[in-house]
Amino acid sequence: MGPSPTLYHYRNPVTQEAVVSLLPPDHPEMVCLQAGEHDTETKFGILGILAAIFWFPLGVGLCILDRRVKCRRCGQVIEDGMCG
């Protein structure tokens, strides 16, 4: 039998839930967990941008539906657009 893996104990600051993980504290996913929020980045899809241009002002709503929100730190997709 080899050595047992190291377990790290965290507390989610938003829900106060105890979390046990194999990921160390400097891992990007654990940094987001400890901060209690993601560092988000929003990108709009080409179909949404074209809709916003050609069918203004109704196309702006389609552009908002075709957005992708992703965390810069851990890479988790928070919201994927309709066309994503």
From TrEMBL:
- In terms of domain of life, where is this protein from? Eukaryota
InterPro entries for the chain: BRI3
Bilayer-crossing regions: 44-65
The answer to whether UniProt assigns keyword Transmembrane helix to this entry is: yes
Q: Recite the UniProt keywords alphabetically.
A: Membrane, Transmembrane, Transmembrane helix
What protein is this chain from? Brain protein I3
